[in-house]
Design brief:
This protein has 338 residues and is of the alpha/beta class. The protein contains 11 helices and 14 strands. An 8-stranded mixed beta sheet has the order 3-2-1-4-5-6-7-8, sandwiched between helices. A 6-stranded antiparallel beta sheet has the order 9-10-14-13-12-11, with helices on one face. The radius of gyration is 20 Å and the shape is globular. The N and C termini lie far apart (55 Å).
Length: 338
């Protein structure tokens, strides 16, 4: 007799556990929140986990991103792959899909189609608003979470029932404060992830749900819980009467992103094309140093900047916060490839 989920089943019931086993959850982002949520959901026996992330493991991640090891950082493994490798050792009974990609308005609807719910673990509001629009459009619950410093908040968006993120954007704490400016401590991450996974299990098992925005500052030992039902906006362009899902439009999307907690800029090509990492390296090997190449990415240094190039043409340019400078460096690496 398999007693793996016995203690959880005593709480959610046999039917509840079966519903968990049948679920497909997508986690967008495999950083601090994503790795914490992914581990809890894997241990809970979620039938299928899809993990989507654009980045790779660095040493600075190890302070709070619990799935990753020093070996992952040394090898510069993509976070989605490193997460899958670890989770398969934790629970070999579930299906885990790892996708190394940038979530945007081109691919979001295809990514979330046929999933039970979405767990937010992104690091920027542009992506969150894209996911929010798609979640409302496809009628899929979206479990939002955010944390910075010692502060965190969490609420869940149920299309046609609760306000969406677009409705609440003016009520969410300063979106320009990031872990890059004020840092972050691991306990704040764990609390937000615990709220998110709890909400996910409640939704999957049909447990009573109230639209509560939970926030806390663990350092100051402060917390609040606010019912946000009244904040739904009938004029919201995402979930209101005359909705047009504005963040699924390409003109709302940028091609460069300054990455949270990093002295780095991500560059996205204007079209999705695959490049050969091996051929790229052979062409640029005379101008680069400190090379690491694997099945997923090419990492190298040119002058004072480290560049990590992915097979889909994306690159993370380290050592600058300036998009124009990052584009110049990017063009040196990928010319004639895209």
């Amino acid at each position: 007799m398999n007693t793996r989920y016995k203690k959880q089943e005593l709480f959610v019931g046999k039917t509840g556990q079966q519903l968990v086993r049948q679920a497909h959850i997508i986690i967008i982002g495999a950083g601090a929140l994503g790795s914490a949520s992914a581990e809890m959901l894997a241990r809970a026996g979620i039938g299928k986990l899809t993990i989507v992330d654009r980045d790779y493991v660095e040493w600075s991640n190890l302070q709070r991103q619990q799935l990753y090891t020093e070996d992952d950082a040394t090898k510069k493994l993509p976070k989605a792959i490193a997460a899958k490798n670890r989770l398969q050792k934790i629970n070999s009974e579930i299906t885990i899909e790892a996708l190394i990609m940038d979530v945007n308005s081109h691919n979001i609807e295809q990514l979330i189609a046929n999933t039970s719910l979405i767990v937010d673990a992104t690091d920027n509001f542009e992506t969150r608003l894209i996911v929010n629009d798609a979640a409302v459009k496809l009628q899929i619950p979206f479990v939002f979470g955010a944390c910075v410093g010692s502060y965190g908040l969490q609420f869940t968006i149920i299309p046609e029932v609760t306000p969406c993120l677009h409705c609440l954007i003016d009520h969410v704490s300063d979106q320009h404060i990031t872990c890059d400016t004020v840092g972050i401590i691991s306990p704040a991450v764990q609390i937000v992830a615990s709220y998110q996974v709890t909400q996910a299990l409640q939704l999957l098992t049909g447990t009573y749900f109230e639209p509560i925005l939970k926030s806390f500052d663990i350092w100051k030992d402060e917390s609040s819980a606010i019912n946000i039902s009244s904040l739904r906006n009938n004029n919201c362009l995402t979930c209101g009467m005359d909705r047009n899902y504005p963040f699924l439009s390409l003109h709302h999307e940028t091609k460069t992103d300054i990455l949270c907690g990093r002295d780095a800029v991500q560059i996205r090509p204007s079209t999705n094309r695959s490049i050969s990492l091996k051929n790229t390296y052979e062409r640029i090997q005379h101008i680069v140093t400190h090379v690491i190449i694997n099945s997923y990415l090419l990492s190298c240094t040119i002058e004072n900047n480290r560049i990590v190039l992915f097979k889909d043409g994306r690159a993370i340019i380290h050592g600058t916060h300036q998009p124009d400078e990052a584009r110049t460096i990017y063009n040196k690496i990928v010319q004639h490839n895209l």
